[in-house]
From TrEMBL:
Gene Ontology molecular-function annotations: transmembrane signaling receptor activity
Keyword annotations of the record: Coiled coil, Membrane, Methylation, Transducer, Transmembrane, Transmembrane helix
Pfam families: MCPsignal (PF00015)
Subcellular localization(s) per the UniProt record: Membrane
GO biological process, alphabetically ordered: chemotaxis; signal transduction
The Methyl-accepting transducer domain, residue ranges: 227-456
Transmembrane segments: 18-36, 42-63, 70-88, 94-122, 143-166
Superkingdom of the organism of origin: Bacteria
PANTHER family linked: METHYL-ACCEPTING CHEMOTAXIS PROTEIN I-RELATED, PROTEIN ICFG
Species of provenance: Janthinobacterium lividum
GO cellular component: plasma membrane
Region called Disordered, residue ranges: 482-532
Protein name: Chemotaxis protein
Length: 532
């Protein structure tokens, strides 16, 4: 990259070439004026060495202050030569003012001062030599007053030209600095914009403003570039996270489907168990009623057995009475037989009757004994049966109590089964809703993955666009805003999950990557300077 002095040197070299052409033109004009007063030797003696020395300086020391100051003096020498060849004609003096104006192309006040000093020395010395008659011509007639008038105009013009030269020099510096800045910005052949301004203090106000603007742009672009890098990394992490989340969501959806199927089967089993529990409860209630009824029957049976036992005891007593009556009848029959025997023949019939009565009494006694034995055995059996019935009644009471307890337990089991059935139904409904939400989440994750992929593509495109700007990494790290470095925290998409349908995610149309600006061919430095 060319520096400020290099750009100014290019201007000085171009001005050297231009003024050298003017010098050669003045030399040719001097050759033409030689025929007026036969001054060819003066043209060759004064003009030719002047233009040759100027040509050598332009060739070997072009762009230096010595060269341009010598060219300024050489122009005045050629003007003095023309005045001498024109025999001091007043019109020939106009060339001095014209050539002084030509020197503005250098934009250097020192060249104008040197030229004015040379022509002033020429006028004073040649006017004096003309008065002494040395054959040189400055004016048509020597006149010191006229020389002073000419000097006044030369000084006036030189002062104005020096001021203009200073202003033009400032403009040249400004143009050079702006050209350097623009060349620095757009100097890359690959179409990039280089924001790394050289740490060279600017002299012109415009260059300072441009440099400040570029520095601010450098800081902003540094922040943008770091932000783009963060966005690229974040979008890549989001894309990877979405892929992982998508896989986990699909796995969760599959697990929820299996869980939902299992819960449906469990719901069916629980419902069947609840129905069985209700039926068992009804059977238990019926069994409890039957057991209570059986307990009542057993109570009645116990009472009946007690009554039978009492009746059997009464029968035993009655049999005892009958046995006593039979015994007494037998005694009476014996007494009657004894009395009949005593009576003899008259009591034989009575004896037969008494014998029959005795037989009947004996048979009655025997029968009553047998009945007594049977009745006693029956009483014993009735007593044993009463005990068994009493025990059966106690057992039946325990059975009734147990059946009531079983009925209560079955009632509780039935109630718990109904509650469990309701809970299982709620769980099944919740799992179904979770399955629906998971499916919605899966759709949202797919849309988020597509959005993250689009964001990643856009971040890549933005990164390519930002790569057009060349930045200083050291200063970019300091210029970047801390807020840019801070990653944005993801906000939970709770509103999307609450909706029954997946919320569509609008994905911005992918914009084609912005191609780097085509590198414009750099214009020649001479063309750049012709614009100023």
């Amino acid at each position: 990259m060319l520096a400020l002095n290099s750009f100014l040197e290019i201007n000085y070299r171009r001005a050297d070439r231009l003024m050298l052409c003017v010098l050669w033109g003045l030399f040719i004009a001097a050759l033409g004026l030689a025929s007026l007063h036969d001054t060819l030797k003066w043209a060759l003696f004064a003009g030719l060495p002047t233009v040759l020395i100027a040509s050598a300086l332009v060739l070997y020391a072009g762009g230096t202050r010595l060269t341009r100051q010598f060219i300024g003096a050489a122009l005045m020498i050629m003007a003095a030569l023309h005045i001498h060849q024109a025999a001091g004609m007043t019109e020939a003096h106009f060339g001095i003012f014209v050539l002084l104006a030509f020197l503005l192309c250098y934009r250097d006040w020192s060249v104008i001062v040197v030229a004015a000093a040379v022509i002033a020395a020429h006028h004073l010395s040649f006017n004096y030599l003309q008065e002494l008659g040395y054959g040189v011509r400055c004016l048509t007639q020597p006149a010191t007053g006229l020389i002073l008038i000419h000097a006044f105009y030369v000084v006036a013009e030189s002062s104005v030209l020096c001021y203009i030269a200073v202003m033009l020099h400032r403009d040249a510096i400004q143009a050079a600095e702006l050209t350097i800045s623009v060349a620095t910005l757009t100097g890359g052949d690959d179409g990039t914009v280089d924001l790394r301004m050289a740490a060279q203090p600017a002299q012109s106000a415009s260059a300072k403003l441009l440099q400040g603007a570029v520095q601010r742009m450098h800081g902003a672009m540094a922040g943008v570039q770091q932000g783009v890098e963060i966005i690229v990394v974040a979008s890549r992490e989001i894309a990877n996270g979405n892929l992982d989340l998508s896989a986990r969501t699909e796995q969760q959806a599959s697990s929820l489907e299996e869980t939902a199927a299992s819960m449906e089967e469990l719901t069916s089993n629980v419902k069947q168990n609840s129905d069985n529990a209700r039926q068992a409860n009804r059977l238990a209630i019926s069994a409890s009623g039957v057991a209570v009824q059986g307990g009542t029957v057993m109570t009645e049976m116990i009472e009946t057995m007690a009554s039978i036992n009492a009746s059997a005891r009464k029968i035993v007593d009655i049999i005892g009475v009958i046995d006593g009556i039979a015994f007494q009848t037998n005694i009476l029959a014996l007494n009657a037989a004894v009395e009949a025997a005593r009576a003899g023949e008259q009591g034989r019939g009575f004896a037969v009757v008494a014998s029959e009565v005795r037989n009947l009494a004996q048979r009655s006694a025997i029968a009553s004994k047998e009945i007594k034995l049977l009745i006693g055995d029956s009483v014993e059996k009735v007593e044993a049966g009463s005990k068994l019935v009493s025990q059966a009644g106690t057992t039946m009471e325990e059975i009734v109590a147990s059946v009531k307890l079983v009925t209560d337990i079955m009632d509780e089991i039935s109630t718990a089964g109904q509650e469990q059935e309701a809970s299982i139904l709620q769980i099944n409904q919740a799992i179904t809703e979770m399955d629906t939400v998971t499916q919605q989440n899966a759709a949202l994750v797919e849309q988020a993955a597509a959005a993250a992929e689009s964001l990643q593509d856009q971040a890549g495109n933005l990164e390519q666009v930002v790569q057009v700007f060349r930045l200083d990494r050291a200063s970019a790290a300091a210029a970047a805003s801390p807020a840019v470095r801070q990653r944005a925290k993801p906000s939970p998409a709770s509103a999307a999950l609450q909706s029954k349908k997946p919320v569509p995610v609008r994905i911005a149309a992918q914009r084609p990557p912005v191609p780097p600006a085509a590198a414009k061919p750099r214009a020649s430095l001479s063309d750049d300077w012709e614009q100023f």
